[in-house]
Structures are given as C-alpha cells and as structure tokens.
Amino acid sequence: GDYDYELTLRTDMYTEKHTQWFYFRVRNMKAGVTYRFTITNLMKRSSLYSQGMRPLLYSERAAKENRVGWQRTGAGNTIYDLVSVQNIAEKNDAAISLYLLTWTLQFPYDSDTCYLAHCYPYTYSRLQRYLKKISSNPAVASYCKVWILCQSLAGNAVYVITITSRGTSQGDVRNRKAVVVTARVHPGETNGSWMMEGFLDFLLGDSDDAKVLRDNFIFKVVPMLNPDGVVVGNYRCSLTGRDLNRNYKTLLKDSFPCVWHTRNMVERLMAETEVVVYCDFHGHSRKNNVFMYGCNSRGDASIKLQERVFPLMMSKNASNKKSKEGTGRIVMWRLGVKNSYTMEATFGGSTLGEN
C-alpha cells in the first residue's frame, strides 16, 4: 500500500550479522494517516518486542512546540514474527531464521521530520559535549580529570576520566583503593551510555555520598569503549568486524586498541593499589529491569559470598548466565579484581512498582 514500508537493516560493518539496532529519519508524512513499517531482517530469536516493547519516536515539531522528546510509539500494534529465508551470502546457501518487526503509527504533524529508534540514541558527539562541560566547570575540575586513553582504529579518542578528591597529602591519595567503570563496548546498547552519564552526574555532584566516595576511592571511568562502532552505527562490533567484549585477552594491540589499553590500564592500576570493583555497563534485549552478572569462585566459600554482596546491594536478580571467557568481566576477574561485574539495563523498561 501507499503507506506501507519494508525496511532492511544494514549489518555491522565487515560482517553478515548483528541486525537489531535501528535509528532512521522520516520526512514529508501526512498527519492522521496510519503508516506501517516492517523491518525484515532482525536476527535475534527472542526479543522484548515479543513481550510488548515498542519502538521510539521523536518529532522535531513536538520537541520545538511542546518540549516533547522521545516517546514509545505503535501502541498495541508491534508484532515480532519468525520467518525463514534463504541467505544467499552463505557459501552453502543454507536457510537461516530471520525475524520481522512490524508496527503501525500515526505521525502527529504534516510534513514534520521524525526519527524512529530501537533505543534512546546516545552519540559520540554527545559524550564529547558532556566531557567538555564537566572539564570547563572549575569546581568539578578540581577532582575530575579527562584524559585520552588511546586512539581507536579510526582515530577517535577513547577517553578515560579520573575522579578523586585532592586529599590532605600525596600519601592519602596514593593509599586509596580504586574502582573501574566502563560502558558502550557494544555500540547499539545506548542505554549503557545513559547509565554512565547518570553515574557520572551523581559521582561529580555535591551530595554527601558523592563526596565520601571521592574522598575514599580513585575512580577510573572509560565512558565509551567502542567509539568507532558508535559513529558508524554498528550494533555490536568495532571496525574489525569483531565483538570487542570477546577480545579483552587479546595481544593484538593495534587491532583492538580500545580493550587492550583498558586492560593494560587496569593491570597498571593493580600494581599500585587494590581495585575493589570493576563494572561494565551494557543493555539487554531479552530481559526487563536492571540486573548484574558476576563471576563464580570455586574455592573459598567466604570469597564466593563476598563477591555477591555488591550485586545484592544493587539488585536481587540472580544470574545463571554462562561465563564468556573474553569478556571484560571475566578478564578483570582473572587479573584479580574479586568484585567484577556486568550491569545490564533493559531496552524495554521496568516491571517493578508502578513505573
């Protein structure tokens, strides 16, 4: 029909897979007309779309005239279906399973400019603006320094932020234990960046809790581990066509500079002080709410219990996910960081309480 559109997602660069994240623009629409969009090649077998999650809509006119931002759209019309197709790109021409995502909506204004997205976008440019803002605040700059950890393959800066109060002496600062927090190793998991910005807003704020943390710990924060993937619109990979979160053990510094330098930073930090917590922020496409994955010690039972204290404080969700050997969480744990976690935020929303 005149108002039906079939869309095909581009795969991650230099791969033939990873189609889940989307973010596109629509112009010259008619208000009050029902449009149907169908994405034809999602690759995940299960998704929160099958539990009622809806795409996001942003209208430039609604934002300008009514200060309305991103909103869920397609209420009651989101369908997530399985379809088997022939993948001619594969050498053996074997049939693979792809998934259709269909939704309908009516745009609020004629001839508007609107955007539709899988999750609230968070760009590399937004991160740079945020870091510039905190660096230019004299009060914050007294306990927060922004450095360049390394350059990505495409020459984008990978930033690291050091946060700790000045202390009463050099020995005071040197004796503090460290906390390492990272995010956005998977570029399509934009909710990881929103969690990171909220974390930094709190840690750099004026609350008594934030001051206590700055006075007692050194925070090393890498807010965007995969800027290349973010810039080109990948869902999961870097410009090597590889998942960086499976390559923290790599010796290939030039191929995987972002995770190589992050691991090296943690190793150098551990030579100077104890790293008490490592936490990597991610987004999750199959589960609701916010929860954590940890590592399983097979030795001393008291250590096993100690590792569960921090997640218990954060969430009462239990993990039964298999460990993945090359992930940041596992590699940092094997380096000796006892409290090493992945924090996952849902793409869909909370099922807890009224929100």
Provide structural commentary.
- Keywords: Carboxypeptidase, Cell projection, Cytoplasm, Cytoskeleton, Hydrolase, Metal-binding, Metalloprotease, Protease, Zinc.
- Helices cover 27% and strands 28% of the residues.
- It is of the alpha/beta class and 355 residues long.
- Helix 8 (257-272) runs parallel beside helix 10.
- Mean pLDDT is 86; it is low at 316-323.
Summarize the topology.
Elements: E1 4-7, E2 23-27, E3 34-42, E4 56-59, H1 60-66, E5 71-72, E6 79-86, E7 95-106, E8 113-117, H2 124-135, H3 138-141, E9 144-151, E10 157-163, H4 170-174, E11 177-183, H5 190-203, H6 208-216, E12 217-222, H7 227-232, H8 257-272, E13 275-284, E14 290-293, H9 301-314, H10 328-335, E15 340-346
Parallel strand pairs: 1-3, 11-12, 11-13, 13-15
Antiparallel strand pairs: 2-8, 3-7, 4-5, 4-8, 6-7, 9-10, 10-12, 14-15
Helix pairs in contact: 8-10
Tally of DSSP β-strands: 15
Q: What is the 3D shape?
A: globular
How much of the sequence is in beta strands? 25-35%
Number of helices: 10
Q: Strands across the major sheet, in which order?
A: 9-10-12-11-13-15-14
Radius of gyration: 22 Å
Task: Assign a percent range to the helix content.
Answer: 25-40%
**Which ranges are low-confidence, i.e. pLDDT below 50, for 5 or more consecutive residues?**
316-323
Helix/strand order, N-terminal first: EEEEHEEEEHHEEHEHHEHHEEHHE
Q: What average pLDDT do the residues reach?
A: 86
Could you give a short account of the major beta sheet?
7 strands, mixed
> Roughly how many Å apart are the termini?
37 Å
What structural class do you assign from the helix and strand content? alpha/beta
GO molecular function: carboxypeptidase activity
Main location: cytoplasm
InterPro entries: Cytosolic_carboxypeptidase, Pepdidase_M14_N, Peptidase_M14
Cofactor: Zn(2+)
